[in-house]
Amino acid sequence: MFWRKNNKASKSGFKCSQCGEVHEDWPALTFISxxxxxxxxxxxxxxxxxxxxxxxxxxxxxxxDRFIRVVLNQKVNNHxxxxxxxxxVSLSEKSYDDYYNxxxxxxxxxxxxxxxxxxLVDYDNSESIPTTVITKRGNDRPEIIPHDDFDHQxxxxxxxxxxxxxxxxxxxxxxxxxx
Length: 179
Fold this sequence. Notes:
The protein has five helices and eleven strands, in the order ββββααββββαβββαα. The chain is α+β, with helices and mostly antiparallel strands and 179 residues long. The relative contact order is 0.16. Residues 1-11 have low confidence and may be disordered.
């Protein structure tokens, strides 16, 4: 989902590209696909890729990469809202199959290991961050928690929080890159 700054609304309003409504709260920063899928040629997307709103696979000759859509809530210091991301993570075949087979099960709660699979402009090597994927009751998208022992600026920002100004800068940068 992309949000665009609404110049006709209040200075903090964002117009949703999906519903056309103006929202006063911060938009979620979402990625349509995992970076490895995004980087495929159009032909490869058609022949070896499979993308839906919650699942993605890439079937190479020698391996299959599996991804699921997840959320991450970034703490914003001295502000009541968190900055929400809609990311993709790669899972092992066993974890992917378990999640896929329980996708409609509203009572399924478990944890998986996953690798962040989106490139973040503000961070180097963001696609290689280890995470814990936590499924939730009620079929909400799983939440990810970066491993706190992994030395990376994204992980430090996750645990230490970011400023409101930094959160708004990221929102505006992502909207400008998707318009």
